[in-house]
Design brief:
about 300 residues, mainly alpha, two-stranded antiparallel sheet, 9 helices, about 35% helix
Length: about 300
């Protein structure tokens, strides 16, 4: 609202209609941290200025989320020793520094040719951003992990991690459109045929591959697979819904002193995944509801 002109002309009204469903309009009871993902044609550069540093000479230095200094600058409590966070030249197990240097050379050449020095590592010799944060969220016996004690800050760190992973995947697809056969999609021609006459409204179409979960190609492939199963085996016989209960003993027993299930989104996710696999094993291998010919399932948050 700070960017709205004539702010004095606006006012806030409270809707006191008792007929409204209070389960929808009441104050939330849970303590959660969420992120607002803005869609549109101007997503490029959306997360460029993640951290801004101002020097003594009034100079501005930008620390992007892919920079190794982003984590210690944004979460000094989780990185008290100032150690570097994720960057695209962390060697995997069994990889020599010579191989990492060759991978770094490839990344620099890619950046000079118009790409960005961010996103997923070009070479398989380096640790991906997803693998790095899976390592950081891991529970280890006898080792203190400050991230798991962060409560709401842990939730924020998890959301920030998710955005970073999704952004790295989107940046990779945006910078490798030729590899993804983007030339097969005539965005400009399609815009003109749809009646778009203003040049400023005609943008370059960025194609998401089917490997991007939640993208249009991925959803279309899933829908086609489901329709193919229905066509071959007929309509489904069982519609089964499984929900996650934060009061499960498996979750409560692993909480640290003073914690609530809301403080450990990583623990809830792992326990739910384990129970989901156990349920799938009972249905597919033990045949508790009969022999299964075909199935499809989805996990929603």
């Amino acid at each position: 609202m700070g960017h709205v002109e004539n702010l004095e002309d606006y006012r806030v009204e409270l809707n006191l209609d008792q007929r409204l469903d209070q389960r929808t309009y009441n104050v939330p009871l849970t303590s959660e941290v969420a992120a607002v993902w803005v869609e549109g044609s101007e997503c490029y550069g959306q997360f460029e200025h993640s951290v801004l540093l101002q020097g003594k000479d009034r100079s501005i230095h930008v620390i992007r989320s892919y920079n190794a200094c982003y984590n210690p600058l944004s979460y000094p409590v989780f990185f008290p020793m100032g150690e570097l966070g994720w960057h695209n030249c962390i060697p995997e197990v069994g990889v020599t520094m010579a191989q990492v240097d060759r991978a770094r050379t490839i990344i620099k050449k890619h950046a000079k040719n118009g790409g960005d020095d961010d996103g997923e590592p070009i070479s398989n010799t380096c640790v991906s951003v997803r693998d790095y944060y899976c390592y950081k969220f891991q529970m280890r016996t006898g080792i203190f992990n400050p991230i798991l004690y962060g409560r709401r800050l842990c939730q924020q760190f998890a959301i920030d991690t998710y955005i970073k992973i999704e952004s790295s995947r989107l940046d990779y697809m945006r910078n490798n459109q030729d590899t993804l056969r983007a030339d097969l999609y005539q965005g400009l021609v399609d815009s003109m045929h749809s009646g778009e006459g203003s040049a400023e409204n005609v943008g370059r179409c960025t194609v998401l591959s089917s490997s991007f979960i939640g993208g249009p190609h991925d959803m279309r492939h899933r829908y086609i697979d489901v329709m193919a199963l229905v066509r071959k085996y007929g309509k489904p016989d069982v519609f089964l819904t499984m929900t996650c209960n934060p009061n499960w003993d498996e979750i409560k027993n692993e909480l640290y002193p003073g914690q609530t299930p809301l403080d450990r989104p990583d623990l809830i996710t792992r326990v739910f995944r384990a129970k989901l696999e156990a349920m799938r094993k009972m249905l597919m291998e033990k045949d508790i509801l009969g022999k299964v010919k075909a199935y499809i399932y989805v996990v929603e948050f």
